[in-house]
Amino acid sequence: MANKADKVKARLPRGLVDRHAADIRATDKMLAAIREVYERYGFDPVETPMLEYTDALGKFLPDQDRPNEGVFSLQDDDEQWMSLRYDLTAPLARHVAENFNEIQLPYRTYRAGYVFRNEKPGPGRFRQFMQFDADTVGAPSVAADAEMCMMMADVMEALGIARGDYIVRVNNRKVLDGVMEAIGVTDEGQKLAILRAIDKLDKFGVEGVKLLLGEGRKDESGDFTKGAGLNDNQIDRVLKLVAPVVGTRLELQYFMSGAVHGSDIGLEGVGELDQIGELIEAAKYSDRIRIDPSVVRGLEYYTGPVFEVELTAEIPNEKGEIVRFGSVGGGGRYDGLVSRFRGQPVPATGFSIGVSRLMTALKNLGKLGEGDVLAPVLVTVMDGDMEAMGKYQDFTQKLRAAGIRAEMYQGNWKKFGNQLKYADRRGAPLAIIQGGDERANGEVQIKDLIEGKRLSGEIESNEEWRASRPAQVTVKEEDLAAKVREMLDQQAQDRAGGA
């Protein structure tokens, strides 16, 4: 027996979670619905490794000022540094650049996978999480950006989120760059601080953002966040751009043009947003997609339109509290990312869905069950000799061959009651039973565990139970699979009738 001091403590690293069958099936169900929309739009799948050379990933993590901070890295045997990917876009840029001569542009692709952030974990903030991305590389027109926004809207509705319970919000980083140029901000660090402040508008409101644009903000715990250091006139001009505003497309164009007056790049961004708005109107998506100058997106590599999809419905969380989930995905144009490798302009746009966050919202809305996979039929073991065991295994394989989920009991078979307890814990719909007498007659018993459980609540005495032999039938061995299928279908009808 091992010494207690030699035992390894079973513990999960902070910021990571184990995933169980129900969550995995619910995720698969959700991914299938998203994939169908991507495919309908003409996108094809691609897969890149989880590890990339660190310099290929770049320094584009949100809220990080130093290269390679925030990633998990290791050194290869040739002393080159590799890192776990922090998103799916930077690896795609490397893939496109490396295979540029073989890829047909525009390159329309989607992929799902885990990404990793070496950050301090917290509630709802994990170090490993899944994203599901779609991108178009090689399309310079903002029509590609408008299409991304429409596809985001279609994904939400394919997942059962009603129109009016979500909104896709669109902005342009050129507009944000333009207003900073118009107010005389040239320092890159100060620009980043301004973007971070604007990005907190939903969380802190106009007054909170005003503090972050100025000297800084102290939160309820007393922690102080240093501000961007703008003066009052500069703050007013930024707030006039990003404060919530509702208007027609032409009114917004006029309003934003005034905010970026004096900046050519800003006016270019306003023009691109107007083109996107015109395309959205033509496709009749205006009730789902809205121009919103407050949208920032955290990653630094965005160069033009940026967008995010936000759930606007009030949704109960795990504690039953009504909350606003906010953003569940977003993206934008990143024309410089592939160019890092190629030394030539390569336009690209795309968006990413936060799978875990969206799945939590869907489950709390009642839009996503834990998967409709039926528990396996249990083939019980009455005798341990090889002839009998061969029979039980044959029954199991015949059920599987008929497309029926089945398993043969693999524990201590000598206590039959334990087998039925196991079946109950597994949620098995049926149990297959064959003792020596049945085997001699070429027969097998099928016990309906769901109906049996119901009837057990209606029958008061053991004598009545034994006399009724509830929900149990005997069939010939050759009829086993057909009868099991019949009984499973009846159970399915009962569930549908009670739904």
Task: Give a description of the structure.
Keywords: Aminoacyl-tRNA synthetase, ATP-binding, Cytoplasm, Ligase, Nucleotide-binding, Protein biosynthesis. It catalyses: tRNA(His) + L-histidine + ATP = L-histidyl-tRNA(His) + AMP + diphosphate + H(+). Homodimer. Strand 14, helix 13 and strand 15 (406-408) form a beta-alpha-beta unit. The longest helix is centred in the N-terminal third of the chain and has 20 residues, at 21-40. The strands form 4 sheets. Strands 1-5-6-13-12-11-7-10 form an 8-stranded mixed β-sheet. The protein has a 5-stranded mixed β-sheet with strand order 15-14-16-17-18. Strands 2-4-3 form a 3-stranded antiparallel β-sheet. The chain contains 18 helices and 18 strands. The protein has 2 domains: 21-365, 2-Layer Sandwich (BirA Bifunctional Protein, domain 2); 377-498, Anticodon-binding domain (Rossmann fold). By secondary structure, it is α+β, with helices and mostly antiparallel strands. It has helices at 21-40, 54-57, 89-98, 143-158, 173-182, 188-198, 201-213, 232-242, 249-259, 264-282, 339-342, 355-365, 386-401, 416-426, 436-441, 449-456, 462-468, 480-498, and strands at 44-45, 51-53, 73-75, 81-84, 107-116, 128-137, 166-172, 216-218, 224-226, 289-291, 305-316, 322-333, 348-354, 377-379, 406-408, 430-433, 443-448, 472-476. It is elongated and about 95 Å long. The protein starts with 20 loop residues before the first helix and ends with a helix. Mean pLDDT is 87; it is low at 63-67.
